[in-house]
From TrEMBL:
InterPro entries: Annexin, Annexin_repeat, Annexin_repeat_CS, Annexin_sf. It holds the Pfam family Annexin. Keywords: Annexin, Calcium, Calcium/phospholipid-binding, Repeat, Signal. This is Annexin. One of its GO terms (molecular function) is phosphatidylserine binding. Belongs to the annexin family. The keyword Phosphoprotein does not apply.
Length: 331
């Protein structure tokens, strides 16, 4: 089984509809014509008024930004995205253009970028495909179809089989009834398929992790400790290597606490040598209307300082301003 197959198979991980904890919420008393006028003036200003562009677009939802873009086009007789592209540059341009896409469109463009050209950015693929809920994955797939990508970049070797399987497999919905017998059975099966034997029955691991509901799996991983001397993450590190290991670890981390997973990714990206802007941008842009508020909360609990403070220490200029605008004030 090749690398892309493994990653896509793990993307069968529908995690249901998660509650939302956005930092970017609909602006009250929203006036798209007024905002469009402000954006037009900011673009025409000598040297470009980046601050106004940041102030407006980081405080509007994607749906509102679309209305601003329509109002801008009526007013200026030109496309707002093209105008922004011409006026901005560098990291600020990347973030602002990302904000002009829906979350699903942004994720789809990140996936497309990760598999374009020579080689594949497996890290990006694993992060997106293994951390998104089923609803989010369905939306991403729709975007691919609308953009006529039709996931053709994924249809390589035996990946076609995986796409067919994706249509048939769906994670079980959470149930109000706790099936302790099934929890015990799955925990035992994970142990029997890994630590107990020589080698690893990967198919069993994938089957359980891709078909069970998230609340069920959370209890399974707790029960697993009664069979194995290692927890699930330690077992994964011992049993499998490479992209398969990374994919399983992302899955388990997201099942246990998705927002903590993103908080750790942000901390690692900002504090690594030569801050990895691409990762920081991707997480903050893609999660600002989903769960960035909760990510900020997990970040502070885990690292003892706010995400906003870390952004101020490790970024600068307009890039820093736009990230802080999307994170909102410290809670």
């Amino acid at each position: 089984v090749n690398k892309k197959t493994v990653i896509l198979l793990l993307a069968l991980t529908s995690q249901g509809q998660d509650p939302l904890f956005p930092t970017v919420v609909p602006a009250v008393d929203f006036d798209p014509d007024k905002d469009a006028a402000r954006i037009e003036t900011a673009i025409k200003t000598k040297g470009v008024d980046e601050q106004t562009i940041i102030d407006v677009l980081t405080k509007r939802t994607y749906a509102q930004r679309r209305e601003i873009a329509f109002a801008y086009e009526r007013r200026a007789k030109k496309d707002m995205i093209s105008a922004l592209k011409g006026a901005l540059s560098g990291s600020l341009e990347t973030v602002i253009l990302g904000l002009m896409k829906s979350t699903a469109q942004f994720d789809a463009s990140e996936i497309k970028g990760s598999i374009k050209g020579l080689g594949t950015d497996e890290e990006t693929l694993i992060e997106i495909l293994c951390s998104r809920s089923n609803d989010e994955l369905v939306e991403i797939k729709k975007v691919y179809k609308e953009c006529k990508y039709t996931l053709k970049y994924f249809v390589i070797s035996c990946v076609k089989f995986i796409l067919q399987l994706r249509l048939l497999t769906k994670r079980a919905e959470p149930s109000s009834i706790t099936d302790y017998e099934k929890i015990d059975e799955d925990a035992r099966a994970l142990y029997d398929a890994g630590i107990k034997i020589k080698g690893t029955d990967v198919a069993t691991w994938i089957s359980i992790m891709s078909e069970r509901s998230v609340p069920h799996l959370q209890k399974v991983f707790q029960k697993y400790k009664s069979y194995s001397p290692y927890d699930m993450q330690e077992s994964i590190v011992k049993e499998v290597k490479g992209d398969l290991q990374r994919s399983f670890l992302v899955l388990v981390q997201c099942f246990e606490n998705k927002q903590l997973y993103f908080a750790k990714r942000l901390n690692e990206a900002m504090k690594s040598k030569g801050a990895k802007e691409k990762i920081v941008t991707r997480i903050i842009v893609s999660r600002c209307e989903v769960d960035l508020k909760k990510i900020c909360s997990e970040y502070k609990s885990c690292f003892g300082q706010s995400l906003q403070q870390t952004i101020m220490e490790h970024t600068k200029g307009d890039y820093q301003k736009v990230l802080l605008g999307l994170c909102g004030p410290e809670q």
